[in-house]
Amino acid sequence: MHLLVRIAIKMSDSKSILRIGLPKGSLQDSTVDLFARAGYKISIPSRSYFPTIDDPQIEMVMFRAQEMSRYVEDGVVDMGITGHDWVIENQSDVHEVCELAYSRATSNPARWVLCVPEESDIYKPEDMAGGIIATELKKTTKKYFEDRNIAIKKVEFSWGATEVKARLVSGIVDITETGSSIRANKLRIIDTILTSTTRLIANHEAWKDDAKRQKIEDLALLLKGAIEARNQVGLKMNAPKSKLDEILKLLPAEKSPTVNQLADQDWVALEVIVEEKVERDLVPQLVRAGATGIFSYQLNKVIH
pLDDT tens digits for 197-250? Predict the structure, then answer.
């Protein structure tokens, strides 16, 4: 049975239900984890395209990130999560709700880069005139060369393992976050043609619906809060008032640390949020300054 037919049968016709497209593939696990930290439990049955979520107002279906924006534009789902690159590549007319700075590997933006083998005599895009480029990002790559008035022979669609083709054609356009795959395949980057991050996108009609828009905005708030909290921890401690000024000078905070009076009038309790990488250096400094009873805890969400 065709996928869209199965989706129509499976998903509810209720106008009060928010239909969400969840990315299948490389973003799948990190997206499920992000929803969990935002307070939503998603379960994906084996061999199913229809995850369950512990919110009766939401239904989910899984699509590849490459096709998500088309289904959001067409109203198959109300909202989806995909890369900005695929919105551009598909030329999709959707409402961009917000950027979600997470990915399968890092929080860094993904880059689509024009590459050649290290031993190639090509050093700039103009050197590729008359050549063949292999890529999954076909429309965007073609436009890149057209905008620069570089006449190439063809942009060939790549069905995966694009790095392997770099020595079979003039060059490739492939995606990278860390550059490790580029280095492993002994490739050299000529140019970056597109930088992309994950986006939360919505269908225009769903965005006009007050109830759905509020639900989408609520989700966006919680998901962004979960991303913000990812590399931060909370710190609690007690301190003698006589040492408070010295301790406060050590504590970074969004505004200022929370300070509460304890039953013992000579002592206070402090609480602050810090970057996780700062905590390991900060805690010994706090102890030396007179803080006691220090403990740290993980954060699920930080809402600004």
Answer: 999 999 999 999 999 999 999 999 999 999 999 889 999 999 999 999 999 999
| Beta-sheet strand order (sheet of 267-275) | 258-261, 267-275, 232-240, 292-298
Q: Which CATH class is domain 110-195?
A: alpha beta
pLDDT tens digits, one per residue of 177-205: 888 889 999 999 999 999 999 999 999 99
CB count within 10 Å of CB 159 equals: 7
In terms of phi and psi (left: phi > 0; alpha: psi -120 to 50; beta: otherwise), the region of 105 is alpha
The CATH-assigned architecture of domain 232-298 is: 2-Layer Sandwich (3.30)
**Do 203 and 75 touch, CB atoms closer than 8 A?**
yes
- The third-level CATH classification (topology) of the domain covering 3-106+198-229 is D-Maltodextrin-Binding Protein; domain 2 (3.40.190)
Residue 233 bridge partners (DSSP): 274, 298
